[in-house]
Amino acid sequence: MDWDKATLEKFRLLIGKMPVFVRGTAEQRVSEKAQGLARAGGRPEVSEKDMVDAFFAQTPFGFQGLMKNDLSAVGIDYTKYGYTDAPVPGRPREERTS
After folding, report:
1. Are 4 and 48 within 8 A, CB to CB?
2. Is the pLDDT score of 95 beyond 50?
3. Which residues pair with 3 in a beta bridge?
4. Cα separation of the two ends of the chain
5. What span, in angstroms and rounded, lies between the C-alpha atoms of 69 and 87?
6. What is the pTM of this model?
7. N or C terminus of the chain with fewer C-beta within 10 Å?
8. Is 46 exposed, middle or buried (0-12, 13-18, 19+ CB in 10 A)?
9. Portion of the chain with pLDDT greater than 70, in percent
10. What tens digit of pLDDT does each residue of 36-81 get?
11. For residue 32, what are the contacts with CB-CB under 8 A and spacing of at least 6?
């Protein structure tokens, strides 16, 4: 299945941020999930939303905080797809100074 060009670039950047020993597995699982979501939605190519949904579905909860940081670092606003930027339970909130 084809990917939106910008989405594929971001996907590759995100996979590159992962530890070497999990890259292959993560790339396969997230890619398959994103393609499945696109097919299920009747879309001819994987969109950014499909990719973000796949990352959230395939990333263990304990690692989603790091994943959110990586998504933001490559210019993806995951909150526009319905995901919260609330802190991970059990971790103190960062104090913001303005």
Report:
1. yes
2. no
3. 46
4. 45
5. 11
6. 0.85
7. C
8. buried
9. 87
10. 999 999 999 999 999 999 999 999 999 999 999 999 999 999 999 9
11. none
Residue by residue, what is the 3-state secondary structure of the chain? CEECHHHHHHHHHHHHCCCHHHHHHHHHHHHHHHHHHHHHCCCCEECHHHHHHHHHHHCCHHHHHHHHHHHHHCCCCHHHHCCCCCCCCCCCCCCCCC
Residues contacting residue 13 through CB under 8 Å, at least 6 positions apart: 74
Q: How far is C-alpha 36 from the geometric centre of its chain's CA atoms?
A: 15
Q: Token pair 């995951």 is at which residue?
A: 78
